TrEMBL record:
Keywords: Lipoprotein, Membrane, Palmitate, Transmembrane, Transmembrane beta strand. Belongs to the outer membrane factor (OMF) (TC 1.B.17) family. It comes from Sphingomonas changbaiensis NBRC 104936. It is found in: Cell membrane. The lineage of its organism: Bacteria, Pseudomonadati, Pseudomonadota, Alphaproteobacteria, Sphingomonadales. Its main location: membrane. The keyword Transmembrane applies. This is Putative efflux pump outer membrane protein.
Amino acid sequence: MLAGCSLAPAYAPPTVAVPAAYKEAPTGWTAATPLDAAPRGAWWTLFADPVLEGLESRIEGASPTLAAAVARYDAARAAAGEAAADLYPTVTASADAVRQRTSARRPGANAAGRFTDATAGASLAYELDLWGRVRNSVHAARAEAEASAADLAAVRLSLQASLADAYFRLRGLDAEAALLRETVGAYSKALELTQARHEGGASSGLDVSRAQTLLSDARAQISDVANRRAATEHQIAALVGAVPSALSIAPVDTGVGSPPPVPAEAPALLVQRRPDVAAAERRIAAANAQIGVARAAFFPDVTLGLAGGFESSHGGLLSAPAGFWALGPLSAALDLFDGGRRQARVRISRAQYDEAAANYRETALTAFREVEDSLAAARLLAAEAADQNSAAAAAARTSDLALTRYREGAADYLQVVTAQTAALDAERAAIAVQTQRMQTTVALVRAFGGDYSTPDGALPARTAMLQADNN
């Protein structure tokens, strides 16, 4: 009955108020089981970009950040194995031989004696875990190992998402560079037209200067975009574990791309897949077990010993007459006075539990906030993109009309400059919004803890509550 004792409090994860629906996606949801240990899938294939898929595949084998996280997980597993070893007895084997001469002047001796004392045997020591100290230490170590596994999953997902975010930023810069190259071509033709009109006396030198200013400014912006693209490419190289000189991503002129649709039921998967929430919950379990370890110190440590073997000084070491054994000692040790050290350790363990519980609630609230932010951004950026594309198309038409009127002498070149500047700004803004949409989709994947679709593209009609339990 004593061996079944445990001084750790009964464990239950702290509750967090779970909304009936998301503010940005008000669909019904029900309780479900945690899926933090489930594979997160190759979620980047949702974007159907072979270059991105190739880069993502390099993270697993080359990223030093991921390798460090794997090493931390391996260390946590080894620590759990070390703690579990205390559940079993310690067996020690020994053998020794001593050549000895006894004193002729010892009490009761008539002469000196010489003999060899040979001993071979084994001893066993086992702590009787009557108060659950060892078992709670094992539970704490295992919970920490599970938290480390969740940390590893979180690091992997974060790296994947950071890579995708940087990649779409790179493609946005490619689209911007392509736009600027087209703009330089258009501005060059406008400059030629202005110079020709100036030579014919139809335009002033002021018009030529304005056209030259626009052209030079567009060329300068190409260099600025190239500089930012190079830095982004170097960032991608670091994420995949390569030196910048070993990675080159060819630019494309096909635009940023379009984000995949977000199903309305997506919030149903939030806490089932979030590895950071799972890690926070496991650390509460570890802190709870440590309370039991601290409380067990108020009771005696009981240790059982057992020894046996052979001893002989006249040969025949491994014979029955040379055998010996001893059961014991059965020892118990208890500190009667320690100046309040044990009480302080209990208070420390309880405070650490409260800290872990607070961190868990903060992690859960952060998870909900990130999903709400991403859902709101996805919805509002879609509307912004539609309006910005309309604005860019209207600005392009205005620029064409202004240049036509200038060519026919119906408008001055200032109107052309104004229209061309507005058109370029509107088109660059449209590219920026589309890039943000792709980045928001990546952020939404990260907030959901991975791929938010099942293999057939459908979502399960369920959601998770924050009572995550890894058992």
